[in-house]
Amino acid sequence: MIRSIGRRWQLGFLAASGLGALLAAIAIGQEKAPETARLGKVEFKVECNGAAQQTFNRAMALYHSFAWKPAADTFAAVAKADPSCGMAHWGRAMVVLDNPFVWPGNLTPAKLDETAAALDAARSAGLKSAREKDYVEAVGAFVRDRDKVEHPARLRAFGEAMAKLAARYPDDKEASILSALVTSASFDPADKTYANQLRAAKILEPIFLAQPNHPGVAHYLIHSYDYPAIAKHGLNAAKRYAQIAPDAPHALHMPSHIFTRVGHWQDSIEANRASAKAASRAQFDGHHATDYMVYAHLQLAQDKAARQALQESLATQAVDHFGAAYAYAAMPARVALEVGDWKAAANVALAPAAGAYAWAKYPQAEAINAFARGVGAARSGDSAAAKTEQARLLVLRDVAKDRKLGYWAEQIEIQAQLVQGLSLLADRKTGEAIEVLSAAAKREDATEKHVVTPGPLLPAREILADVLLEAGKAADAQREYEAVLAREPNRYRATFGAARAARQAGNAQKAKLHFAALVDLGRSADTQRDSLLEARQFLARK
């Protein structure tokens, strides 16, 4: 009987006072108060007194780097400095809405209610211009009728309201920046033209030239370009963001989204090491950054460094947040799967331990664990165990559907299909396995990865290529591995697979090219993988 999100699988606004300022400083990983923290330059005009205006600019700088707790504390300081500053409560409403790139998964009914209450407080405190009222009503379009209207329709209304706001006040670049944020976050995962993302980038690029030290512009450009086909356009913003806001852990991490997309692994490691070091243990940022760092280490055959980063993350305070939960599940799974340790993958446990928080809250994170266990079991020849994990995945898919997490329901179903295909392989039904895996690869190609992850645990097309190579279809396998590399440049397993497939297909030139790339990836390896030895031996004979 499957009890997916229970039993054995469940392992698991301060006042603006001196204390509040100290805690806000700690929350962004610094010993300095927010007034002196390096957060970039933001000028957001509000009809409030001078002290409140200055503090409001700092609060928005924190918001633009998704530093939620210190931003909330600083907006509270705005309200204390000027109780008639209604925009302080608008800012609090924006903070409560959290990361728009994770919507709707992070928007509980309680959060939406709190947002609406903050907007009411803004209206009561005082909005001294039509512009300020327009800001409040734009957010109001998102939370109004929240109990009757589904998220996609309300999100469209929010985007339309922000676009009208930006058009109505063309000199207010903050309106344009926030409009671009909502536009970029309102993407369709199946849209391969990246229409909304590129529309947002078109708004942001000229502002970046005019305001090169604005944290939000650099941040949202990175998000807008965080897709394989357009990632190279985000390198300028990626290289600048950490310099703009070096005291914001998220600003230190975000460049790695672009570095990952283009395969710049060492740059990703350095960015995430700095972010994890700066992040508070009471926030998810450090665990999220560590997951990206683990992924990058593994692409350079730095297995010891990956395990050390994993252990350091798990040794810190457990954080009840989706971003942290995903990292907890993904990191140990990556360490096992990337090196093909199928037995370890089949037995990977959920961490942190039981009692830290309820894993049932995050079906899309727990599914990572089920997927890893299913792949590991099937590749170890244990078809029965793999089918158990497949069934668990289908339960988690249904939970995601019930919670209206449509994107994640689709991703979990793809994971279940991949485990099904590998189970068929374990049952020696190779032809059927290839058909199922091919279908899963097409489905995965049709969507994009979520911002919470640097990439799939194992790309569906890479799994398909592995099976094709084992079935003696080397040319077909080579084509599939190279398709993975087109989307995930410098991915270690795909590079090795492409080299072996090319060699078996008799394509010595391509084999040499891919083996040389593998040796280059492993030049700073801290582990002697057999694949590196094989690559060096092949090149030595040429």
User: Could you say what the CATH topology of the domain at 39-245 is called?
Assistant: Serine Threonine Protein Phosphatase 5, Tetratricopeptide repeat
Largest sheet: none
List low-confidence stretches: 1-32
Cα radius of gyration in angstroms = 24 Å
CATH top level assignment of the domain at 39-245: Mainly Alpha
Helix and strand layout, with pairings?
Elements: H1 18-27, H2 50-64, H3 68-81, H4 87-96, H5 109-125, H6 130-143, H7 151-168, H8 173-185, H9 195-210, H10 215-224, H11 235-244, H12 249-253, H13 255-262, H14 265-278, H15 285-299, H16 303-314, H17 322-338, H18 342-346, H19 363-379, H20 383-402, H21 406-426, H22 430-445, H23 460-470, H24 474-487, H25 492-504, H26 508-521, H27 530-540
Helix pairs in contact: 1-3, 2-3, 2-4, 3-4, 4-5, 4-6, 5-6, 6-7, 7-8, 8-9, 8-10, 9-10, 10-11, 11-13, 13-14, 14-15, 15-16, 15-17, 16-17, 17-19, 19-20, 19-21, 20-21, 21-22, 22-23, 23-24, 23-25, 24-25, 25-26, 26-27
Explain what the structure shows.
The model is unreliable at 1-32 (pLDDT under 50). Helix content is 66%, strand content 0%. The protein has 542 residues and is an all-alpha fold. The chain has helices at 18-27, 50-64, 68-81, 87-96, 109-125, 130-143, 151-168, 173-185, 195-210, 215-224, 235-244, 249-253, 255-262, 265-278, 285-299, 303-314, 322-338, 342-346, 363-379, 383-402, 406-426, 430-445, 460-470, 474-487, 492-504, 508-521, 530-540. Among the domains are: 39-245, Serine Threonine Protein Phosphatase 5, Tetratricopeptide repeat (Alpha Horseshoe); 468-542, Serine Threonine Protein Phosphatase 5, Tetratricopeptide repeat. Helix 4 packs parallel to helix 6 (130-143).
